[in-house]
Amino acid sequence: MNYDHQYHAGNTADCVKHLALSLTLQTLVRKDSPLAYIETHAGAGRYALGTQGEHLQGVSRLWADRRSLPHAGAWLKIVSNENADGTLRHYPGSPALAAALLRPTDRMVLCEEQPEVATRLRKAIGKRAHTSVVGEDGYRTLFGQIPPPEKRGLVLIDPPFERRDEWERLTDTLIRAYQRWPQGVYLVWYPVKIRGTITRLWQALRERLPAFACELLQMPEEGREQLFGSGLIVVNPPWGLREALAAALTELGPLLSAPQGGGLWSLRCQGWPGPAPKPPVHFNG
């Protein structure tokens, strides 16, 4: 795999994804019942930020305004806690972010297939109780974890999109996972790059599961094969999440817009109800 978590840490995709993750977990922990958190592509957990890297177009643009972005406040507070002296040098990945938001009794299953990265993840996550790091394929591991004994939980699917069949595998995994555990909440990140591929994903999901999708574009979408922005799909979204996420992304949009796009940005959200309920069966007797 060529994906370099270290270089990409804190980029615009991470900002969108981790903002959505924090808002979703904040909503889920409001109920007293326990949660399971499962992540299929966990990465190293924590990252050192240098003078170069994609964070310069991402979280570094937000850092000066971190106290004036109320809808992103919980996420940025966790980033601030990793940088107590006020200088942005460290970035918490999704495992560290989830660990900070979950309750001590909530269970975490973190999948990371690359051995070196999995070793760093175990060190980053420390001795947190009820936490497992699985050094195997995250898609396959997921089906051994659902439905979890807690009955409630969140699955984060954030693949690197390097495999030729990544979109097909993502679609198949999401549909089958929902069939096995329809009570679970699923959060998926995808790159907004080739519209036809995204349209096929949406069409495959539309009639099969209840969800909404949001896309934050950092530049105008003009049909060229390049990365325009980040997309999110939330299956079984908790009540109020769609509105909270839209408000938070609206705050971030102007700060994350790409200079080559003339500072233009846009936010698109679309939802679908999922499969229609089966009609009642009437018996004559």
UniProtKB/TrEMBL annotation:
The keyword S-adenosyl-L-methionine applies. It is an enzyme of class 2 (transferase). It comes from the Bacteria. The active site is at D158. The record marks Y3 as: Interaction with substrate rRNA. Its EC number is 2.1.1.266. The keyword Iron-sulfur does not apply. Keywords: Methyltransferase, RNA-binding, rRNA processing, S-adenosyl-L-methionine, Transferase. One of its GO terms (biological process) is rRNA base methylation. Monomer. Specifically methylates the adenine in position 2030 of 23S rRNA. This is Ribosomal RNA large subunit methyltransferase J. The gene is rlmJ.
